[in-house]
Amino acid sequence: ESHMGPVKIGIILGFTGPLESITPDMAGGAELAINEVNESGAFMDGTQIEAVRADSTCIDSAAATAAAERLVTNDGVAGIMGADCSGVTGAILQNVARANGVVMISPSATSPALSEAEDDGMFFRTAPSDARQGEIMSQVIMDRGISEVALTYTNNDYGKGLADSFQKAFEADGGTVTISAAHEDGKADYSAEVASLASAGGEVLVVAGYTDQGGKGIIQASLDSGAFDTFVLPDGMIGQQIVDDLGSGLDGSFGQLPGSDSEGSAIFQEMATEAGINPTGIYTGESYDAAALMILAMAKAGSTSAADYAGEIMDIANAPGEQILPGELAKALELIEAGEEIDYVGATAVELIEPGESAGTFKEIEIKDGAIETVGFR
Amino acid sequence: MAEPHLIGEAMTGGYGRGADILQGCTLSVDKGQIAVIVGPNGAGKSTAMKAVFGMLNLRSGSVRIGGEDITHLSPQDRVAKGMAFVPQTSNIFPSMTVEENLEMGAFLRRDDIRPTIEQVYDLFPILRDKRRQAAGELSGGQRQQVAVGRALMTQPSVLMLDEPTAGVSPIVMDELFDRIIEVARAGITILMVEQNARQALEIADKGYVLVQGCNAYTGTGAELMADDEVRRTFLGG
Amino acid sequence: MITVENLHRHFGGFHAVDGASLKIETGSITGLIGPNGAGKTTLFNVIAGRLPPTSGRVTMDGEDITGLPPHALFHKGLLRTFQIAHEFSSMTVRENLMMVPEGQHGETLWNAWFGRGKIAAQERELAKKADEVLEFLTISHLADERAGNLSGGQKKLLELGRTMMVDAKIVFLDEVGAGVNRTLLNTIGDAIVRLNKERGYTFCVIEHDMDFIGRLCDPVIVMAEGKVLAQGSADSIMKNEAVIEAYLGTGLKNKTVGETA
Amino acid sequence: MTDILNAIVALSNFVLIPGAAYGAQLALGALGVTLIYGILRFSNFAHGDTMAFGTMATILVTWGLQSMGVSFGFLPTALIALPVGIAITGLLLLGTDRAVYRFYRKQKAAPVVLVIVSIGVMFVMNGLVRFIIGVGDVNFADGARFVINARQFREMTGLDEGLAIRSTTLITLITAAIAVALLFWFLNKTRTGKSMRAFSDNEDLALLSGINPERVVAVTWLIIAALATTAGVLYGLDKSFKAFTYFQLLLPIFAAAIVGGLGNPLGAIAGGFVIAFSEVLVTYAWKKVLEYLLPENLEPSSLVQLLSTDYKFAVSFAILIIVLLFKPTGLFKGQSV
Amino acid sequence: MTARGYLLYAGMALLIVLTGFVQGWNLALTILNMGLISAIMSLGVNLQWGFAGLFNVGVMGFVALGGLAAVLVSMPPVAEGWNAGGLRLLGALALGAAILVAAVQVWKRKIGGRMRALVMLALLIGGFFLFRASLDPAVNAIEAINPSLSGYLGGLGLPIIIAWPVGGLLAAGAAWIIGKAALGLRSDYLAIATLGIAEIVIAVLKNEDWLSRGVKNVVGLPRPVPYEVDLQRDPGFVEAAAGYGLDPVTASTLWVKILYSGLFAVVLIAILFLAQRALASPWGRMMRAIRDNEVAAAAMGKNVTARHLQVFILGSAVCGIAGAMMTTLDGQLTPGSYQPLRFTFLVWVMVIVGGSGNNYGAVLGGFLIWWLWVMVEPLGLWAMELITSGMSPDSWLRGHLTDSAAQMRLMTMGIILLAVLRFSPKGLMPER
Ligand SMILES: Nc1ncnc2c1ncn2[C@@H]1O[C@H](COP(=O)(O)OP(=O)(O)OP(=O)(O)O)[C@@H](O)[C@H]1O
Ligand SMILES: Nc1ncnc2c1ncn2[C@@H]1O[C@H](COP(=O)(O)OP(=O)(O)OP(=O)(O)O)[C@@H](O)[C@H]1O
Ligand SMILES: [Mg+2]
Ligand SMILES: [Mg+2]
Hints:
heteropentamer, A: 378 residues, 7-stranded mixed sheet, B: alpha/beta, binds adenosine-5'-triphosphate, binds magnesium ion, Amino acid/amide ABC transporter membrane protein 2 (HAAT family) (chain E), cell membrane (chain E), ABC_transp_permease (chain E), LivM-like (chain E)
């Protein structure tokens, strides 16, 4: 099958709205993969790939659906890299992707509920479900000999899901959660939350939020009032920006995020930096991987029709086969051309389990002297 | 005879794009004199006043003061030229105190306004008691007194009053007419609309009867009072 | 009959109505006069349910109506006009009148949706009635004008017109005359007398035009500083020293400008 | 004894001081909203974004100053840049008025139309800010962050609980006090101020008194620019700058202005504190304080929390509604259109 | 409707048709469907504002209640949840309601001031703790059941269409309570009160997981129309589609949307018909009189409070119906997505731009603003491309501009809004 025009891939993320500060880098990550393929010219006899961005708004399912609808019916995209927030992702999946038979690979929708959603085999994600991260986080804390924590989470499906799974795991491991308090993102003030958290007490504060949202506000207010001085940071809370902003206050805090010790992430960091994308930005690597997976699956199936390539995605992502790191997409395409098996590893050591989501290796980090240091992998 | 001090000549115009309310109406007053406009409700008396004060776009006609054409001046500029106006409705600043209402009347004045305020209080003693009260909380007649007081604060050379005595008790009305005469004697030109026509025409040097936007009758106050037709149809017998 | 017993209404520390007691006899045209700020309008507002009294009692034909909401009083046949005209400014003059009568068929939603026939008939009647009132007030030509565009006096006429749309028991008129042409006011006076005689309306009239009061009203109640100062026939009131002192004055001190100029 | 002191310090540190800081921030914002309502008679939805714009302008100037090596000692450099920021915002607002609001004023449009128009302006300003400075978090605070921090306090007093006072908190409180005093004086005592109130009361009559409406409007916008920029900068210094948060601030700011009585500057201040303290107090977990105060055997096992923080925002609104039910035009008598 | 009105409607239809031709019929129908729902919301607000002058800025809350109805009606009940504490929970809720009613009764008693307040306060505070003590265990038990997938009570398992009137009723009930309390407030004060109540409704939806899973969302609501995949498997349908020269996927997506459009249009037309009749009747005249001057209307025997309550309930119910329809269309309830900007102010923009007081205007506003809301995104992008097309590809400014293209969305919306209002400040179809 040969194509006249370029193949289009939709990138639907919340460019406006509460996640607007991390989405540009995520889109950049995905486009990095696309550009890499385009430059190689190795995709389907030199067919070019074009990224089409659309705004999911993160919060408005109707607008997100309309935007996705346009990507599919007007731009005729062959697949969707997105969406970001679990709510809109669910809406697009049910109303657009399933209906039109289009593949979606989300780099960041981590809600456990999506694992169970009806998807006709069209939905994948490169970020692990929060259920897994909760267990990992519990181990990370326990291993440091901490048994009493206060917990705050951003009041959405991500935060709530992560908090629930963490609390369950932590209590099963014998720890105590003194308080589990929600916080809303984008609010002007978090004194009330911090006051309650401080009153409840705990050795450390677990903050299941976002770096540039309420999570940061909570940490800042905690530091200001001396309520806590060590914080446990899951994926949404880790980024260089917050470390820079809060200065020495975060030293000694620790956490974990999806990631592996594969060389992949190091390579990706370099590539991203070169392309002017913030490499430590959250879900940037996942976005690269999502786009790459989609492209490689198309190549493998020799078709841009979802019905053909959806089934290849798991295969591409998992062993057996030659391991593919970021920057090696050209090689991967050649291998596919040659009919060989590949195992896409990518920036985040992608390993997909049923039903099409990342198995999740986690990187444990600690903040030392204003830098995020990796201290181990789980 | 020299031209009257204030003259609105052959004024024609209306509100917005609606029909003409004024149809070639002419009003004039000499310096230091009192002209009174009477007429049925909706005749265009208030409209004529507004036209003289520049709150209405005239389609034709002109307004002159002391020989100077001011047809195209804004109301603000007319205030600067020494004109003052008490509208018929919404003629106070309701949330400001009585005293502040008076101060606003003297907005353009730079000299000491205390003495004038005292004069207004002497004229309307009730206002002295209520000086710290919001004008919107006053009774109807009290408001009317504030409105007239505000205009007097300007120390104008032309004073225009649209039904100043509506809702005012007889004793205050008499005071008010006295004061208007006094003001006129001090050389100020007065143009007013009145429904208390008999009292008003008594003190008027000149009277106009306006009907449907046109001058129906014109004469001295006494002449109009003497005219049976006018009395019967416009002054209530 | 309306009786007001020892009524008080205070604004902060100010006693606008300060222990007023009075009676309005059924079938009378009672005048209510008094200096500016005497508390007349406030008294009306309390009687008509617009302001709650600080203390005191109002009864209507023996029934306690103190503090009833205005719409309930309307249904009891108590109507009032406003000193500062309260027209429905974005509606036409005719609509201003047509909205008044109570119990209109089309005022319930169900009928508005599904009872068109009956509404149409009723509407025709209302419109006819409204036109008659407008005719009487000499503003027929304004029937389709927006009420907000009326002149000051025309609005006052409209105020009066509304009370003529229904069969009222007692009507409180707050300075209907202010700003109304005197010739027309005479006609209005005649109408008030006619409504009083022919239809048995009771009136309570606030007015500063003593000719009007003198011609129409008996008895006349004088208020000052929130209390009843005097009461009696118009003639006796006009001769009452206290009333002259507080309210009427002694006429113009200077006659005309012309005399001295 | 120390237990009582500890309890007091804990309460101050987690409730009183943060509440006061947040309250003052809301109050400054609410002053602007209430002034527009009082003089120009509409609820300005663009106020949050005006604050964002002013802050952005100030940040840009601050960066310029910082790159030139200017600093303000222990005070934040942004305070030097503030006047410039105010001036730029003033120009923007005057421009907006000329391009947008004036038309509706001339038309004597209903207030709700102006509200919708201000939503349009909000979108545009919002876009402008995100466009110029981006959507991310911007931290521009320098100078000393604390007057005293928790650790220093603990060391100084030997108590278990710490007490932290941020310099921005102090600056904000002082500024709010000065701003309301100035505004009060200006509106009630100066000629221009009175003419502004006159204009808001009865525009036509103001005209007849020789008041120049355009001047009144211009002065109003300039004051708004000063208030909004100051409020925005102080908030940004205390927390950080982010376009989206400034937009979100609008809701509590409106709540503050309304609970205090729209159009009333004193009310805006009171409203700010009511909203801020109600958020903190109703959701406060009294466990810690009670642990200090009660004997060992009575110590609470639960958090002793009236409502969880999930409902903090709802609580502040519930309090607002309750206040309105008993005082329908706010704590201090406000106006209504 | 005036000639101008017909023209505007024709223009609106043309816009949607053009969208169909240029950008695809699926998109055009998506816009049309949300446009129909928006038009209903806009009618609801117009009922309150345009008819009666009630400044309700709590639209979002009523829309969300409609959404809640969709879940409560259509989802299958969760038996484990009911067993774990369903009845206990209902009991606790009844207790809470009883306490509130008792407090109100105390307040209404005409006995001594201070005492009354104290008794009421004691009742409320004591009652609150009692309520929490009986509610919390039940809630915990229910929420503990498989939280990531269920953890709530579920619904009644009825066809989702029933949720539409139920959503209206739910919203009406809420409006009745709110109206009883807050309708005495004037203009902007009522506005902020309703705004606050809407926030409270959302807070409840977000945090009471037992009710509708809170922020964990309920996804996969049943549909009133067939699923595309089922149609694609239906040979009859595939054949019919082929008859029109359409592939089964396109045909099925279009067909599903057309079915939705039909359902929504029926609701819209019914509501519009009733609203229009009401407006043109003595009832409408009475409402306009109340809007113009409450004091005078009361003096003319109209029960202002009762009428306000009536129209407030009615308008809110319409918003609730629209909310249930919207959740049906979305196929999920996501409480986190309810934002005042989108669900309250955008609806207000629709009403004002369309022309408040004019039902046809409100409907037009609903369609137009929704169309714009969706279309400004590509419009903004195109504008950016146009602006940057002349610049050298690697200039800093160009990069900055293209990166900010998404931000143009709100800006474009703002500019268009201002332009429309400038062009006709009383709305596209003024009241009269
Ligand atoms: N809302 C209010 N707040 C404070 N004072 C008020 C208020 N309303 C009225 N007053 C005061 O109560 C007094 C009585 O007012 P009212 O309007 O009853 O007078 P009135 O007898 O009708 O006078 P007029 O003949 O001028 O209409 C006045 O002095 C007025 O200032
Ligand atoms: N703002 C307006 N827009 C349109 N028409 C108006 C407006 N104001 C007044 N009119 C009309 O203009 C005519 C004259 O009004 P005007 O107010 O000048 O009457 P007037 O002579 O002052 O009457 P009155 O004695 O009742 O005050 C009236 O028929 C009125 O309906
Ligand atoms: Mg007039
Ligand atoms: Mg009075």
